[in-house]
Amino acid sequence: MTLLSFTPSSRLPVPTFSTVRRQPFVSTTHHPQSCGLLGSKPIPLFGLRTHCPAPYDVSIRSKFLSFGLSASVEDLIRDAGATAAVIGGAYVLVFIFDNLTERKLLNQGLSRKLVHILSGVLFMLCWPIFSTSTEARYFAALVPLVNCLRLLVNGLSLASDDRLNKSVTREGNPEELLRGPLYYVLVLIFCALAFWRDSPIGIILLAIMCGGDGVADIFGRRFGAVKIPYNPQKSWAGSIAMFVFGFLFSTGMLYYYSALGYFQLDWTSTMQKVALVSLVATAVESLPTTKVVDDNISVPLASMAVALLSFSN
Ligand SMILES: C/C(=C\COP(=O)(O)O)CCC[C@H](C)CCC[C@H](C)CCCC(C)C
Ligand SMILES: Nc1ccn([C@@H]2O[C@H](COP(=O)(O)OP(=O)(O)O)[C@@H](O)[C@H]2O)c(=O)n1
Fold this sequence. Notes:
Layout: H1 55-66, H2 73-102, H3 108-126, H4 136-155, H5 162-168, H6 180-194, H7 200-223, E1 227-228, E2 231-235, H8 236-259, H9 267-286, H10 295-311
Antiparallel strand pairs: 1-2
Bound molecules: ligand LRRJ3J73 and cytidine-5'-diphosphate.
């Protein structure tokens, strides 16, 4: 099982998630596709069909398969529409925070952090609007990819997007776009492709990077008088906020996906594992390593390592 092929299939003996309520982690669907880890069909989201195709769909799908299309036209249209909508949402988010900064309703630092928190969390909240086809994750990954190109073009000064600079950089310096923000969207691309809706690991990883690390900055700047002995740049308040909000964002996102039918989790065990991942991520984020490796890389890497160990059987 590789991360990218982490798609349950009724034919293969698939591992049983220890966090899943005591039943074999086997999909009962006709198609090896990410539609609920246990064949439990996700409930429709906003009226959209997010469940696995019913048997009658097999005949429709087999017609497309005979033409070599692995996804139905309906799925392709839905995914293209979802991609366009979420890309539009990203532009609106940057526009809103640029406006708030312009009007001095938000300082640039807080604006940047709120964009840091909201971008990834809202992106994950949008994943269920994509179809259940195996191609859906690639459509979803287009959203951070488009923003990656936007960051590169502006960071290399091939174009100038003032709104982006003001809402995403500390001092409005375009080169800044090529560090934290670029690593951030690269992690979003990786999680969408490698984990998608199939595994709690990517969701936890993003919740900690976006929610935990984002809130750490806000609390740390505001309440961070007592510094961490081994890193005067960081504070106990910031790190405690990182742990607490990393945990809360992670469990909140897992509950969201569980409520939609993607996961059936043993919550006692899951909460323990999420707390461990959040603790390790907090410890890594507190280290004086930002000059060597950005915490948008170190924190997700550490979170992924611990989450893979914790959630594998
Ligand atoms: C400010 C950001 C990262 C900086 O991190 P750090 O250096 O402060 O630790 C976030 C950059 C966000 C990016 C420009 C836009 C990403 C949009 C996202 C892929 C899709 C959001 C869609 C949703 C519906 C708003
Ligand atoms: N654990 C933490 C994290 C951040 N912070 C505060 O937030 C500021 C920015 O943190 P950071 O360097 O991690 O910011 P980003 O690299 O995430 O943008 C730090 O200079 C601290 O003032 C903190 O006090 N404690």
